[in-house]
Design goal:
The chain is mainly beta. The chain is built from no helices and eleven strands. The strands form two sheets. Strands 2, 4, 5, 6, 9, 10 and 11 form a seven-stranded mixed β-sheet that branches. The protein has a four-stranded antiparallel β-sheet with strand order 1-3-8-7, with no helix packed on it. Strand 5 and strand 6 form a beta hairpin. The termini are far apart. The mean pLDDT is 95.
Length: 128
């Protein structure tokens, strides 16, 4: 059974930092690609970042570029999203997602929603 479990969300003041974690089990981590998405109240789901464990490619949406960093720890089967300089508009439920067998072109551009598995989400609230 494939499982993705996010953690690390919470309440933070604007300008602060949080690190989200996504523990992944049930798939071959080194062949996969991963992504972070978010959904703010009343808004559509949007792609934040992605990373391919296969090629090392990564991508950031413009609205987080320079503030967020996506990484993986292959030994722990865990993906992270370090979020710095948080803004109130970053308030959302954040979801991690996995693409089980990432092709060569995975994460070569904007984050699509074509992932195989999703976590339940973790809430991030940034107060001004």
């Amino acid at each position: 059974e494939v499982q993705l479990v996010e953690s690390g969300g919470g309440l933070v003041l604007a300008g602060g930092s949080l690190r989200l974690s996504c523990e992944i089990s049930g798939i071959t981590f080194t062949g996969a690609g991963f992504g972070w998405f978010r959904q703010a109240p009343g808004k559509k789901l949007e792609g934040v970042s992605c990373i391919s464990v296969v090629t090392g490619k990564y991508y950031y949406a413009e609205f987080v570029k320079g503030r967020f960093t996506i990484t993986t720890d292959n030994a722990k089967n865990t993906m992270y999203l370090q979020m710095n300089s948080l803004k109130p508009e970053d308030t959302a439920v954040y979801y991690c997602a996995a693409f089980e067998e990432a092709p060569e072109y995975f994460c070569s551009g904007p984050v699509s929603q074509e992932f195989d598995y999703w976590g339940p989400g973790t809430r991030v609230t940034v107060s001004s």
